[in-house]
Amino acid sequence: MNQTRTIPRYAHADGHTDLCYSEDGSYIITCGSEGDVRIWKGFHDDDSKAICVGEIAYCVDQKGDKLYVGSDANSVQIFTFPDAELDGVLTRFTAPATSIDVSQDGSLVAAGSANMEIHVVEIASQTVKHFVGHKAPVLHVAIDPKLDFLSSSSCDGTVRVWNISDQKVVKEWTDVTPQVNSFKLAERFCHVSWETLTGRLLAIPFDSEIRIFQRSTWNMMMTLSNHQLTKSFSLTSWSNCGKFLAASTLSGEITVWNTMVNRIVSFSKDDDELNVCSLHWNPASEKQQLAFCDVQGRLGVVDNCFPASRESKMDSVGKKNTPARAEPEADDFDFGRELEEDEDDPEAISLEKIKSNYSGIFDEDQKSQKSNMLGDDDMMSVKSCSSRGPALPLVDLQPPFQPTSSPVHLQRRFMVFNDIGYVRQTNTEDENMIDIDFHDASIHHAFRINNILNHSMAALNSEGLVLACEKTADSTSKLVCVLFKSWDSSKEWNIEMMDEEDIQALAVGNKWLAVATTFRFLRLFTLSGVQREILRLPGPVVCLNALDDLLYIVYHSSMGLPGEQNLSFAIYQIAIGCTVLVSAQPLPLTPKSTLKWIGFSDQFNPCALDSEGILSLFVSSSGLWKPICYVDAQYKGTSNHHFIVGVCEERQNIRCILCKGSYYPSTIPHPFITEIPWQIPVCEISMDKGGIEESYWRCSIARECLKQESSSLNKDFLTSALKLFSLSCKTGHEMRVLEFCDFTSNKDVTNLALKYAFKTRNEKLTERLTELQKIQQEMEMEDRSDCSDRYKMDPSSSNNVHRLTNGDDGQSQELFPENRSIGRSYGEPNQESVSLIAETKKRKSLSEQKNQILGQRKINPFRKSSQFDSSLNLPTQENASPPVPAPEVKKNTTNAFSVWYESQKENLIKESPDLEEAELLKLAAKKFRLLKKSQETDANDKTDTENDENEQTSKKKRKSVDDEASEPTTQKRKSFLKLQEYVFKK
Question: What biological processes does GO assign it (predicted)?
Fold first, then answer.
């Protein structure tokens, strides 16, 4: 039966008009701007009861035997129902009451006022709670069916959700409606409504769409729209069964959606195009009726608002506030009445049928046995518990979706939008088409497909297009593949799934495609249509994505906590066979969020985006998830979001589409891909320290992901480290520099910190960094020695020296010194064990030394500088032999040679390119000794000359040359400073 909209009748004078149904749906109650409240026995009642409550009646609601009216008397009055006699005042304001809502059980009454306050009155105790925070008159209030939350809208353009118990705001949406300063000037009344059965959804009318939000998490679950509308939405109202949502616009258009399938089931227009200011469903379960009032005081109804096939489902819900019972009790069932009513039915006397329909009935013997065992009181408690049913938490599993796609319920949507191109679907009354276009026209030309099979999923790469449709009552689920580079005559193929098997997700890779189904099968096909392996999924699939030969799978591993998802992911390599590269691991999400997008970065690292806007990157080398950006914070405005397309490690940016006021891009005009930088969510990022740390870790994560080093990235990495050193030293936090060098364990960072300490003359930091560098070098040598043990040569070639290439600098390092025997006799007992114990002890000793350097060793602040200088003495002729790869570093040697060698290494290699590492070190040590000797000679000559001049000018300050020669420490200090200046003047 088609829906019918009756011609409205005049009920009140021009102006704001409100209405509600009585609890049983038999009466329609209205109030208007002339101050009257009218009670109608149906729409066609010509003799309605009218009472005057004031000059203007703004709002009305009814529950039980009470009628609540808000008027210009600045109060909420109580009348009896249906007699309409004054029964008192519920609460008072300093301005007119503009909205009233009574809870489903009648225990709470909420009222909003033009004085920007909301009162919630508990009927039993008559206690009043005040909710203050709106900055303009209140438009509408609604109580959560579970009595936990209160929603309100205001002329200040905001919608708030309050916690009734503590009267605090738990969620706020801004810029929902135009801002006005008076209730009379408001055009959009912004009626917010809760889903009537469980309150798990909240509907808010935005400009051209209705947004549905999930309870507690307040994540947007879906959007409802109608392309036939000409004005903005103003009111919403849920049906009593919780499946249908009605909404009206400023021009009087009323749309009804089936929220279970996101489809419009009825739509009607007003010939006069008047603004609807009140909209309510008839609570009677057998009726499909909506009542509305407009700004001219007219009352109208819409009948048959949803298809007749839904009536049985509506009937099962029952009347509003009727408690649901899991099973009928034996005492409530009248066998005689049932048999009498059905005596003409040949099956009416079937006792077995009656028993099967009422399987919860106990026979008298069973009831007596249970009564004797439990007692009367216990039996009553068991009976009441069984009638209520088990109380289980509501956990909604995230349904499957396609990454980089728009929701299925949209009439114009992107089925996929990636780096290759996009697939756009248009599903309207006039056409049902799929358009395919490419960013690079050399891949393939754009083309269009008639969507005869109602495809709802798509995957696209440079080799082909894959489409899939869900099964229906008449057909099975089908998979279609369109090839771009086929060399035979076949450019397209399709295949049907098994009966009752439905495709939920799909992805296309290099010469293969994957399909996840409701049977938890992962079906693999070649691009030409050959069926490959069939794998089992551990849980319900959420989404798939593929790149080259990698397949990224996300699925539900188990039921999550209330309001949360428990997801896992795995990475498969699809080549000649199927192998697991990353076994099943938990996928981290922000609390109370859902998964929005998955994909691979440019370096084949898995990425994931949740509904809170946190983009995370899985670093394959370490096996850890790291947050790289809070994408929604990149653009001002809470309603603006980014639609992710790709992630680049080398440039540290994200390719995305900015969606203003939505989560998904619009198809018209054509969206453009923009790039936003990574921004690691460090603390105090706006401060100097936080900004430098963010830059360092951004470069560090990018370096960790890149397979080949980038010179520009290394430069940014070291620049950030140098800035951090400088800031720490300027603020007196030198210990941060030492700790930073320790936990990074990067020799370039340590060398940079040491050079900075030398240049800034920070003696204390230089000493500690020098000792830390020596320990790091020794530990690095020990690590290489352990690694070389796996590749030791045969004992017969024990005179050879093994070499291992360092991946960082490409140099060949000797792993064993000349005075250490590298040959090992396999017949010697316990030699390997003794060596292992010795290495372990040495590592422990090095670790203890490092801990002392990092802060446990006490330093005398009044120590003379000569003591510091003596710790940096140059090697003498006796101990300056050419270094070998793993020498035993003596305690009194300095690291000046290492600094000089690093700075002159390139010149030495150019002079002697044929020398090996050991011979090059010998040559460098020889030149370093000669340089040191010449510097000391020059320093001694200069000292003698200065002493002679001082002796002639001032006899009091004269000192003998012999006394000066007895102070070698001073001469060594001067020579070292000159050598130090030479090192840094490149």
Answer: DNA repair; DNA-templated DNA replication; mitotic cell cycle
Q: Please state, in angstroms and rounded to a whole number, the distance separating the CA atoms of residues 818 and 918.
A: 10
* Radius of gyration of the chain measured on its C-alpha atoms: 40
Question: Which of helix, strand or coil describes residue 517?
Answer: strand
* Average pLDDT over every residue of 95-124: 94
Rounded-to-integer distance, Cα 978 and Cα 186, Å: 82
Evaluate whether 403 touches 597 at the Cβ level (below 8 Å).
Answer: yes
Q: Which residues share a beta bridge with 119?
A: 111, 130
pLDDT tens per residue, range 520-537: 999 999 998 899 999 999
Give the DSSP letter string of 130-156: EEE--SS-EEEEEE-TTSSEEEEEETT
pLDDT at residue 545, rounded to an integer:
95
Chain mean pLDDT for the chain: 77
Asked if pLDDT for residue 635 goes beyond 90, the answer is: no
Give tens-digit pLDDT for 845-855: 555 555 555 55
What is the C-alpha separation between 894 and 871, in angstroms, rounded?
7
Q: Which of 974, 914, 909 is nearest to 939 (CA)?
A: 974
Residue 149 to residue 162: CA distance in whole angstroms: 5
pLDDT greater at residue 35 or residue 727? 35
Distance CA 410, CA 414 (A): 9
The answer to whether 246 and 280 have CB atoms below 8 angstroms apart is no
Does 82 have pLDDT greater than 80? yes
* d(C-alpha 395, C-alpha 119), whole Å: 32
- The string over 211-245, giving b where at least 16 C-beta atoms fall within 10 Å of a residue's C-beta and e elsewhere, is bbbbbbbebebbbbbbeebebbbbbbbbbbbbbbb
Q: Which residue has the tokens 């340590």?
A: 750
Q: Cβ distance 702 to 620 under 8 Å?
A: no
Helix (H) or strand (E) holding 170: strand 168-173
* Cβ atoms 68, 57 nearer than 8 A: no
Nearest to 183 by CA among 345, 59, 51, 300: 59
The per-type count for the chain, helices as H runs and strands as E runs, is: 15, 54
User: 182: number of CA atoms within 13 Å, CB side?
Assistant: 2
Asked if residues 411 and 423 have their Cβ atoms less than 8 Å apart, the reply is no
Q: Has residue 358 got a pLDDT over 70?
A: no
Closest C-alpha among 526, 594, 522 to residue 564: 594
CA distance 832 to 382: 72
Cβ neighbourhood burial of 782 (10 Å; 0-12, 13-18, 19+)? middle
CA-CA-CA-CA dihedral for 222, 228, 234, 235, to nearest 10: -70
Element (H, E) at 531: strand 531-536
Concatenating the DSSP letter of every residue in 409-462 gives T-SEEEEEE-SSEEEEEEESSS-EEEEEEESSTTT---EEEE-TT---EEEE-S
Helix, coil or strand: residue 184: helix
Residue of 776 and 241 predicted with greater confidence? 241
Please report, rounded to a whole number, the percentage of residues in the chain having pLDDT higher than 70: 73
Query: What's the burial of 76, exposed, middle or buried (CB within 10 Å: 0-12/13-18/19+)?
Result: buried
Q: For 663-701, how does the pLDDT look when each residue is reduced to its tens digit (9 = 90+)?
A: 889 888 888 899 999 988 889 888 888 888 888 888 888
On the question of a cis peptide bond just before residue 669, with omega within 30 degrees of 0, the verdict is yes
**Cα-Cα end-to-end distance for the chain:** 91
- Comparing 407-411, 483-487, 888-892, the range with the smallest average pLDDT is 888-892
Would you place residue 833 in the very low, low, confident or very high pLDDT band (cuts 50, 70, 90)? very low
Across 62-76, 719-733, 962-976, which has the greatest mean pLDDT? Answer: 62-76
- CB-count burial class (<10 Å; 0-12, 13-18, 19+) for 196: buried
Mean of the pLDDT values across residues 955-978? Answer: 47
- Which range, of 83-87, 629-633, 931-935, averages the lowest pLDDT? 931-935
